[in-house]
Write a structure and sequence with these properties.
mainly alpha
């Protein structure tokens, strides 16, 4: 009972962190639309992105993974309690320091704490998971997620190296950032979500082998798929070939996995909460679009379009972070009764949040298409600000709903 209360309180804190992410996003949109001279835009952007990754997504995935470990026959060690709060210290430290100084000694210190947390968590969870009764395919997904979580730390190390040694190459600087983003988005986030999904769906033996094949294909393709992030530099031929092969393998894995997941959803729909089913439907629609967009970037004209217009990049990042990962995690917390927003104010809140996310993507897409045609859409910032307000209001209602349900933070 104490473990359940603690995990539920962690889920409630995750929701509050997501609300804070939306506040930062709202401030960014306000500054980009009107004027907010007190705040440094670049510092605020750094704080927003780092807290979204660490304070929201990583915290929520940590909570969900610890939850399924507890439900899989493992008594939780106090270590996870210390790890959770270490990550919160790192997350809020980065939030404050990035807003104060951008990349500097203090923000780099808290970033280093975040890396220490990721190594510690990966090692401990890997060890404990071996003793659990999770299905083999679930364990495979989570192992891949933990491997890519650790690999993603190479990005910040390379970035720190480029800054400390004054590496003048702009390509080296951005490719270091893309290395981190790639193994976070396409590795840690993706395989952790797949592991959590398969834990809920419990694939029957008839689908387990094919599901493992699909996950394996996607895992094998993840490392060479980093080449897709290098195409903006007009790299040598071998990078294009590697990127193309990785894209084809990912598409094949997507087609195989989509068919299997659909069969599992049909079989399990009686056990799935209706709201969770809607959120997961949106989540995996976003996931499919993500894989298709990645593969499309191999085509030179589409690749130039993707890397040339900032709204396209922002739309892609939000498609993954909000459309794929956030929708899934909210559905996971709902289906496991860790959070309850399936009625009244909570249902209104989730509706507003979904509308804000979808609206944000549509506005960014239209803005990009108009820019590609040589037309500047001067009204776009106002509509994007409206979408940010919609997301914030939705999350505020969800947070109020969580408070009404008595989810008190357990220290």
């Amino acid at each position: 009972m104490q473990e359940t209360r603690r995990l539920n309180s962690w889920a409630a804190l995750c929701l509050l962190n997501l609300l804070l992410v939306s506040v930062l996003g709202l401030l960014l949109r306000y500054k980009g639309t009107f004027s907010f001279p007190v705040v440094n835009y670049k510092y605020l952007l750094n704080a927003h992105s780092h807290f979204a990754f660490s304070g929201w997504v990583t915290t929520a995935l940590f909570t969900a993974l610890v939850y399924i470990l507890a439900r899989s026959g493992i008594g939780l060690s106090p270590v996870y309690h210390y790890q959770f709060w270490l990550n919160q210290v790192a997350s809020f430290g980065m939030l404050v320091s990035f807003m104060w100084q951008g990349y500097g000694p203090v923000s780099i210190f808290f970033s280093a704490i975040s890396v220490v947390f990721s190594y510690w968590f990966a090692a401990r969870y890997w060890s404990d998971m071996r003793k659990s009764v999770m299905a083999a395919v679930v364990k495979a997904c989570i192992r891949l997620a933990l491997i890519f979580l650790v690999l993603s730390s190479a990005g910040p190390f390379l970035l720190a190296y480029s800054m400390s040694h004054r590496v003048g190459s702009l390509a080296f600087y951005y490719n270091s950032i893309y290395l981190y983003l790639h193994f976070q988005y396409n590795g840690w986030f993706t395989f952790a979500v797949l592991g959590l999904l398969l834990w809920v769906l419990q694939p029957p033996a008839v689908h387990a082998g094919k599901t493992a094949w699909a996950v394996g294909l996607m895992g094998v393709a993840c490392v060479p798929a980093y080449c897709l992030s290098l195409l903006w530099t007009v790299p040598p031929t071998w990078v294009w070939v590697t990127a193309g092969i990785a894209a084809i393998v990912q598409l094949a894995a997507l087609l195989l996995l989509a068919g299997l997941l659909w069969k599992m959803f049909v079989t399990s729909r009686g056990r799935l909460h209706r709201l969770a089913a809607v959120l997961w439907g949106l989540s995996f629609t976003a996931f499919g679009i993500k894989i298709i967009l990645q593969a499309s970037s191999v085509i030179p004209s589409l690749g130039r379009f993707a890397f040339s217009f900032r709204p396209v990049i922002i739309a892609y990042l939000h498609l993954v972070l909000l459309g794929f990962v956030t929708f899934f995690l909210l559905g996971f917390f709902c289906i496991n009764k860790m959070l309850d927003f399936s009625r009244g104010v909570g249902l209104t809140g989730i509706g507003l949040f979904i509308a804000g996310v979808v609206g944000n993507e549509m506005i960014l897409l239209l803005q990009s298409l108009l820019a590609a045609g040589g037309t500047a859409w001067n009204g776009a910032p106002y509509y994007l600000f409206g979408a940010a307000v919609c997301m914030f209001c939705g999350l505020l209602l969800l947070a109020c709903r969580g408070k009404n349900q008595g989810n008190v933070i357990q220290l």
